[in-house]
Write a structure and sequence with these properties.
The protein has 309 residues and is α/β, with parallel strands linked by helices. The protein has ten helices and ten strands. Strand 5, helix 6 and strand 6 form a beta-alpha-beta unit. Helix 1 packs antiparallel against helix 5, helix 4 crosses helix 5 and helix 9 packs parallel to helix 10.
């Protein structure tokens, strides 16, 4: 009971003048105000279900127990999940209900609990994980984020998160500012990744191919941005080598909101992706996932229909 009270007190403090993420917007989310992320302290989610489209070491055959949270501290103009990132959809759930959802996903045979866009709910998630563990949760916790994370918030997750599945979107400051209004993204992402690797310095893969602990760095190749992608690969590999897995994605899908914005209004070409993969192999990267075939389709974007909530 003492630990529970401590978590609740920290949650209230964090939410009264929110500084959980690097936006540091200081909104009083505890009183119902919304921060840059677009949400107050109330948890909003859009889906909780088995998900099969993550990296093989996360989804496996059984699927990843994925919870999609509403709101986002980046809200990139090309966002593939814009409905929930902009808080256009979401159902309110309590911390207690979130803990129950984790346990229900475990009962359904999930390989892990996968928290998608969780950054603005760190205190509530921490509490829900503790409650679920008290109720028998034994699955690895996956923190699936955009890479724009506060180091202090990540430190508060030590002992709660087993796998960091993080984006590293930009090394190019101009792209970061123009696409995500976050010119400081490269520095923030580097500091966040350093903390993630400190907590999980070595990947642990079971015989069945599933990851139990570790860090996976995702990069979604954007059209016309091969140079940026190469810079991300170079930094991550030269800094961490095989301590982390790279996941290089070609699935960028141009949606209606970028129809008039070049080059975001087109798909990534096969040649662009091949150039990135060739560079990655030349660097000597061993631990990497790549995509094959046609992945840039809206059918790969989940239905945010409140399943499992």
């Amino acid at each position: 009971m003492t630990a529970m009270k401590s978590l609740l007190t920290k949650e209230q403090t964090d939410m009264e003048a929110c500084s959980i993420c690097p936006r540091n917007c200081r909104a009083n989310r505890a009183e119902g105000k919304t921060g840059y992320c677009g949400v107050s302290s109330k948890i909003l989610a859009a889906r909780a279900a088995l998900h099969y489209w993550e990296e093989p070491c996360i989804s496996g055959r059984e699927g990843s127990g994925t919870v999609f949270f509403s709101g986002c501290n980046l809200r990139c103009i090309y966002c593939q999940n814009f409905q929930i990132a902009k808080n256009e959809t979401g159902r309110e759930i309590t911390v207690e209900r979130l803990a129950e959802i984790f346990l229900e996903l475990q009962e359904k045979g999930a390989n892990n609990i996968n928290l998608v866009t969780p950054s603005h709910y760190v205190p509530q998630i921490r509490e829900a994980i503790q409650q679920a563990k008290n109720g028998g949760l034994s699955l690895p916790i996956v923190y699936n984020c955009g890479g724009y994370e506060g180091v202090e918030a990540l430190q508060s997750l030590e002992g709660f998160v087993d796998i960091y599945l993080t984006d590293f979107k930009y090394m190019d400051v101009d792209l970061a500012q123009n696409y995500s209004k976050a010119g400081d993204y490269p520095q923030i992402a580097m500091a966040a990744l350093k903390e993630m690797v400190r907590q999980q310095p070595r990947p642990v893969i079971e015989e069945n191919g599933l990851m139990k602990r570790g860090v996976i760095v995702r990069h979604l190749l954007l059209p016309g941005a091969v140079k940026n992608a190469k810079a991300v690969v170079k930094y991550v590999y030269e800094t961490y080598g095989n301590q982390v897995y790279l996941s290089l994605m070609s699935q960028y899908t141009p949606l209606a909101q970028v129809s008039g914005i070049s080059p975001l209004n087109r798909k990534v070409t096969r040649r662009e992706y091949e150039r990135l993969i060739d560079y990655t192999l030349e660097m000597g990267v061993i631990n990497a996932y790549i995509q094959e075939g046609e992945t840039a389709r809206e059918s790969f974007i989940p239905e945010f229909d409140y399943e499992g909530l």
